[in-house]
Amino acid sequence: MAEPAYVDIVWQHLRHALGPAPEPRPAVLLDVPDGTDFRELVEEISGRAGQPRTLIDDGRRMVPLDARTGLPLVEPFGEDVRELRAWPYWNDWIGCARVVRAGREHVVAVIAHRADPAAEGVPEDASWTEKLRLVTGWEPAPRTPVDWQAAEQALGTRLPGDYKEIADLFGYGSFDMYLELLLPGVRGLDLVDWSLSARAHGADLWRPHPVHPDPGGLLRWGVSEQELDFFWQTGAADPDDWPVLVRTDFDTWERYECGVGEFLVRLLTDTGLGHPTSRIAAHCFADYA
After folding, report:
1. Interatomic CA distance for residues 211 and 209, integer angstroms
2. How many CA atoms lie within 13 A of 164 on its CB side?
3. Distance between CA 186 and CA 208 in Å, rounded?
4. 89: how many CB neighbours lie within 10 A of its CB?
5. Global pTM value
6. Residue 211 DSSP class
7. Burial of 204: CB neighbours in 10 Å, binned 0-12, 13-18, 19+
8. Which of 75, 183, 224, 237 is least surrounded, with the fewest CB atoms within 10 Å of its CB?
9. Helix (H) or strand (E) holding 162
10. Could you tell me the strand order of the sheet in which 244-249 lies?
11. How far apart are CA 154 and CA 172, in angstroms?
12. β-bridge partners, 232
C-alpha cells in the first residue's frame, strides 16, 4: 500500500521556491518502502499532481523523450525501466517507475530537474493557445470533446473562441496549481452550473457589476485556491471582445482588455500582474481529468 507519509517525503524534495530558475541537479532516487504497490503509489501522487504521463510501458518508450518531455527521469535507469509514469511539477519532474535490478523488480520514486519548457522562446506570431501550450510544456491527451453547442444553448450566448480552444486542448486541470478553468460537463466546476447558480443568487452577488445574462453581466470562467475569481464582462456582440475581470477580494476588481488566452499567458509570465505564478521559473499544467 502507498503511504501518504511517504509521498510527503517525495514532496519535500521538490523545489517549490519562487524566483530564478534553480541550477540543474542530478536525479534524486527515493527508496520506496517494501511492499509498496506501483499503481497505488501512482494513484497517491496523482491525487496531488494530477494525471500522469506514461513515458514507458512494458519496457517501450511511449513518447519521444527529450528534456522537455521527461528524459531526465529515464536517464538514471538506462534500459532497466519496465514502466514509468511522470508528472511535471514546476521546476521538477516527479517519476514513479518499475525497474529491474539484479533480476528483481523494484518500485522507485525519482525527482529530476525540469527545465523551463519555453526556454528556447515562444514565437510572437503563435496564437495565445499555442503560447500557453509552449509555456507550460503541455502534451495534449485524447479526451472527450466538449459539447459546445449544448453549453452555449444553456448559457444563452456564444463563448469566446480562445476559451474554447484552451478548454479543448487542456481539459480539466490547473495552471501552476493556481488557476482552474470552469468547463462544461466537469462535476463541481461546470461552467453552465456555476452560471445558473449565479443567476439564482441575484443582483448583489458581484456588485457593482450585474450577473449574466443581464446587460454587461459577469460570467465566471475560472477560480483559484487563492480565493480569486475570474470573469468575462459580457455585453459586446462578439464574445472575443469580452474583457477579463478579476475579483481579488470582495470589493476589489481588476480589468484586463484582453481575452482568456492572453490573460493566462500573462498570469504565468508577466510579473507586472502581481500573481505569484509569474515568479515560477518553469510552468506546468496539472491534468485533473
Report:
1. 7
2. 13
3. 29
4. 23
5. 0.93
6. B
7. exposed
8. 237
9. helix 161-170
10. 252-256, 244-249, 229-233, 218-224, 179-181, 173-175, 285-287
11. 20
12. 219, 244
State the residue for C-alpha cell 520514486.
109
List the pLDDT tens digit at each of the 289 positions of the chain. Answer: 557 888 999 999 998 878 888 899 999 999 888 888 999 999 999 999 999 999 999 989 988 898 889 999 999 987 789 999 999 999 999 999 999 887 888 899 999 999 999 988 999 999 999 999 999 999 888 888 899 999 999 999 999 999 999 999 999 999 999 999 999 999 999 999 999 999 987 667 888 999 999 999 999 999 998 878 999 999 999 999 999 999 988 778 999 999 999 999 999 999 999 899 999 999 999 999 8
What cell was used for 123?
Answer: 514565437
- The residue length of the chain stands at 289
